[in-house]
Amino acid sequence: MSAMQRYLPVFHDVLGASVLVVGAGAVGTRKIESLLAGGARVTVVAKEFSPAVLERAARGDLTAVRGTFHPDQMEEAELVFVATPDRALNHRVSAEARRRRIPVNVADSPGDCTFILPAVVRGEGFTAAISTGGRHPWAAKALREFLEDHRVEISVRMERGRRRKRIAARPGKVYIVGAGPGDPDLLTVRALGLLRSADAVIHDYLVPAEILSLAPAKAPRICFARRGGTAGHGAVLKQNAIHEAMVRLAREGKSVVRLKSGDPLVFGRGGEEAEHLSREGIPFEIVPGITAAMGCAAAAVLPLTHRERSSSVTFVAGHETDEKGKSAVDWSLLPKDGTLAVYMGVGRVAAIAEELAGAGFSPDTPFAIVENGSRPEQRILRGTLSDLPRIAVESGVRSPAILFVGRSAALPHFISSQEDPGEPAAQSI
């Protein structure tokens, strides 16, 4: 019989279980955190406690007993974990647990264990456990790393398998997903997994091809441009057509990713689309993304809030729809000591500068325009409000771009001094 044949792989439900842990060093602390994450009721016995365990005890997450182990402490235990540097004590605790027929695990001592803890990899919809009985830790580590590297792919394959089992008449689901500011690396793990398993993608024209390429090749891409311009990725649709396409594809049983640049709920019409799907009885989920202002600010090292420069941040639409006509923004109500992030304002920067001046903003107020934020072609323009119209015209700035106004828009010296001299400097005017 091989060493591993002695062990029956079992996933033990610890939710609400009473668990005794003897030892609160580094190893014991890791086991305690795993048990608490699973919902166990943990009692810890130790002469000394790690800071993390003491903090948990202070919050009431566990019971800490300072002192030496006594058999009576096992009275209500359903599981026992031992992790002390005293081998004799570890053996004594193990023997007592065995006598009481309580499953016991002793760190670094397989002979004292009635169960062992495998390496665990968790993904969306699955948990994998790996063990070599402590004989080949390198092999267990290699297997764990392989699964971690492929967890998204495994989840995607599982999702595809579930989708194949759906009843044809059952509607699919629409995922209203934020694609972030443009860099594929800034997609959330959830967004990436959904995109890789999508049956169809309906996307904004600002979503770059690098992100669209992550969807399966057979999944149709349907492009949406609000103002009817050509996007280069496919057919152009109006908003009502987007509504119709989402409903139609979902009723065909498809998993539809409605992919939006930035975040769906920040100037992304995600609310309108969620309302329509709800009225039509279509299941949906909103998956947030890094909104353009936050992504561009990070790419430009522009703190939206700063203890010395800005105590607030305001997101504003610089362009309204044809249906709304005149801007609904009351510029006079905007805080002048905060950071103002203006979306969709590149085409009317002169009017915005005039409106801000009329609202009491100083002509010396710094601004920054971040064009194609987070992407290789990123460009940063800086100046003051008095020069904003001229700089925008001379630079030929184009959408997508975010206009930032406020003291934080002037990149602080202590930050700019940290620039890597090997990296190309941001373009400033």
Structure, described:
Helix 1 (about 25-35) links the parallel strand 1 (about 20) and strand 2 (about 40-45). The chain is α/β, with parallel strands linked by helices. Residues about 225-235 and about 415-429 have low confidence and may be disordered. It is elongated, with a radius of gyration of 29 Å. It is about 30% helix and about 20% strand. It has three domains: about 5-115, NAD(P)-binding Rossmann-like Domain (Rossmann fold), CATH 3.40.50.720; about 170-290, Cobalt-precorrin-4 Transmethylase, domain 1 (3-Layer(aba) Sandwich); about 295-415, Tetrapyrrole methylase, C-terminal domain (Methyltransferase, Cobalt-precorrin-4 Transmethylase, Domain 2). The protein has a five-stranded parallel sheet with strand order 3-2-1-4-5, with helices on both faces. A five-stranded parallel sheet has the order 10-9-11-8-12, with helices on both faces.
Short note summarizing the structure:
The protein is α/β, with parallel strands linked by helices. It is built from 13 helices and 17 strands.
Strand and helix map with partners:
Blueprint: E1 18-22, H1 26-37, E2 41-46, H2 51-59, E3 63-66, E4 79-82, H3 87-99, E5 104-106, E6 119-123, E7 126-130, H4 137-149, H5 151-164, E8 173-178, H6 189-196, E9 200-204, H7 209-212, E10 221-224, H8 239-251, E11 255-260, H9 270-279, E12 284-287, H10 292-299, E13 313-317, E14 339-343, H11 349-358, E15 366-371, E16 379-384, H12 388-395, E17 401-405, H13 413-416
Parallel strand pairs: 1-2, 1-4, 2-3, 4-5, 8-11, 8-12, 9-10, 9-11, 13-14
Antiparallel strand pairs: 6-7, 14-17, 15-16, 15-17
Helix pairs in contact: 5-6
